[in-house]
UniProtKB/TrEMBL annotation:
Lineage, uppermost ranks: Eukaryota, Metazoa, Chordata, Craniata, Vertebrata
GO MF term set: ATP binding; metal ion binding; propionyl-CoA carboxylase activity
GO cellular component, one term: mitochondrion
Protein name: PCCA carboxylase
Domain Biotin carboxylation, first and last residues per copy: 1-317
């Protein structure tokens, strides 16, 4: 723990710039500053201590080497779930890849990682277990690492609690981590051996936030959920949430709406199910980040596993602008919107016996419309032949 700015500068010089100054009690990317020289270290110490005190009621700070462009196989690259009981037994439950982040806070997680080989996975797992045993830890916890492009890994921190993204570990191991925590707290020994811990399939989690992704990748949005429907009809989907239609999204709490998890026999299947789940998630009344999540999981770099904690600023250097429609997608949307509009008008006319739009004759078969899509207005001609429409 740093005593003052002078000590921060001294240690920074010893370990070499750049360095990361961070709140000891911090989390979610708060109270963190990168420093590239002595002046930035002093400034970072001042700002980080102020933010730490206001956010966590604890102004104590740490300093560590800053690893540029890492993976967070948990808060800036790799995480291992550790179960340690009061009988001296410990397990590592494979890794979670958490590199997709905005403002140092995770957005998309998956298990396992596309990057790790069995040897690196085992080495990280053994290090995590050694740490848990050294501090005599008993419960579920997470040891976080940064991993560079050469698969060198660096200890980041240990979270002595259940992480937000624990469901992806449950999916690929078949363990109920909440149940295991309760059993350990009650004094029961672990029921599993390390050799019993599998990697079955692939799981992906998207954090659905009430925030506007077009503003700094997500500024919080508040309001009432006027419409809310989770995509639970999609196969192998799990939604962990605490809200429902009519709930208020408050400024006083984290803007997370839910954790959306999909599972598949392989990564491609899990991604396809996540794509379908996001497309079928209905949220109205507040801004949300589903459009950003949808773009991330289908981006070629993400699909190939070419990711790091800099993924979002590298892929969207000017900020997220949304999906750019292809000509085919634009034509399909215009045709669908125009056809639905005409069909609705005809149903209203039949039900009421009077048209809601002016008609020249009793049986109209063609329409000239102007459809507003994005920033443009497009002329669309619709003709009806029996029960079908041509656009």
């Amino acid at each position: 723990l740093l005593q003052d700015a002078d000590e921060a500068v001294r240690i920074a010089r010893e370990i070499g710039y750049p360095v990361m100054i961070k709140a000891s009690a911090g989390g979610g990317g708060k109270g963190m500053r990168i420093a590239w020289d002595d002046e930035e270290t002093r400034e970072g110490f001042r700002f980080s201590s102020q933010e730490a005190a206001s956010s966590f009621g604890d102004d104590r700070l740490l300093i560590e080497k800053f690893i540029d462009n890492p993976r967070h196989i948990e808060i800036q690259v790799l995480l291992f779930q550790v179960l340690a009981d009061k009988h001296g037994n410990a397990l590592w439950l494979n890794e979670r890849e958490c590199s997709i982040q905005r403002r140092n806070q995770k957005v998309v997680e998956e298990a396992p990682s596309t990057f790790l080989d069995p040897e690196t996975r085992r080495a990280m797992g053994e290090q995590a277990v050694a740490l848990a045993k050294a501090v005599k830890y008993s419960s579920a916890g997470t040891v976080e690492f940064l991993v560079d492009s050469s698969k060198n890994f660096y200890f980041l921190e240990m979270n002595t609690r259940l992480q937000v993204e624990h469901p992806v570990t449950e999916c690929i191991t078949g363990l109920d981590l909440v149940q295991e925590m309760i059993r350990v707290a009650k004094g029961y020994p672990l029921r599993h051996k390390q050799a019993d811990i599998p990697i079955n399939g692939w799981a992906i989690e998207c954090r659905v936030y009430a925030e506007d992704p077009y503003k700094s990748f997500g500024l919080p949005s508040i309001g009432k959920l006027s419409q809310y429907q989770e995509p639970l009809h999609v196969p192998s989907v799990r939604v962990d949430s605490g809200i429902q239609q009519g709930s208020d999204i408050s400024i006083y709490y984290d803007p997370m709406i839910s954790k959306l998890i999909t599972y598949g026999s392989n990564r491609a299947e899990a991604l396809k199910r996540m794509e379908e789940a996001l497309d079928n998630y209905v949220i109205r009344g507040v801004a949300h980040n589903i459009s950003l999540l949808r773009e991330v999981i289908v981006h070629p770099r993400f699909v190939q596993g070419d990711i790091s904690t800099k993924f979002l600023p590298e892929v969207y250097p000017d900020g997220f602008k949304g999906h750019k429609l292809t000509d085919l997608e634009r034509r399909e949307l215009l045709a669908t919107a125009a056809s639905l509009y005409v069909a609705e008008q005809l149903r209203s006319q039949q039900f009421l016996g009077t048209p809601r739009i002016p008609i020249a004759k009793s049986k109209r078969s063609s329409w000239e419309l102007s459809v507003h899509l994005g920033d443009g207005i497009y002329p669309v001609a619709v003709s009806k032949d029996g029960s079908s429409f041509s656009v």
